[in-house]
Amino acid sequence: MNERCPVCDLRFEREEGYFLGAMYISYGLALIAIVVLAALLWSLLHWSIQKSVIWGLIFFLPAAPLITLFSRVPWIYLDQAIDPAP
Ligand SMILES: [Zn+2]
Asked: 27-38, pLDDT tens digit by residue?
């Protein structure tokens, strides 16, 4: 990840632990993705709920780093809306 925006020169990590708030967004997105995957497995393959959730979690794992990075985008937008950088 770049330290600063190449267009507007915004410093992304404003302080130590800045992206902690992005973890909440990441958690919510991960939960939605796992529920959707489990529901698909449950409805298409008629597995048990438990087996569908476990396999939904396993299928989600490769996307976890991508969602972690993506969750920083809405976090930065939210932070800039509430407390804009000078
Ligand atoms: Zn920018």
From this structure: 999 999 999 999
Taking alpha carbons only, the member of 83, 86, 66 closest to residue 26 is 66
**Within-domain flag for 64:** yes
Q: What is the pTM of this model?
A: 0.81
CA of 4 to the centre of ligand 1 (A): 8
DSSP at 83? S
What are the residue ranges in the chain where pLDDT is below 50? none
Domain membership of residue 24 (yes or no) is yes
Residues, Cβ < 5 Å to ion ligand 1? 5, 7-8, 10
> Does residue 59 lie in a domain region?
yes
The angle, 0 to 180 degrees and rounded to 10, between the axes of the packed helices 72-82 and 20-45 is 140
- Ligand 1 centre from 12 Cα, in Å? 9
CB neighbour list of residue 64: distance below 8 Å, 6 or more residues apart = 30
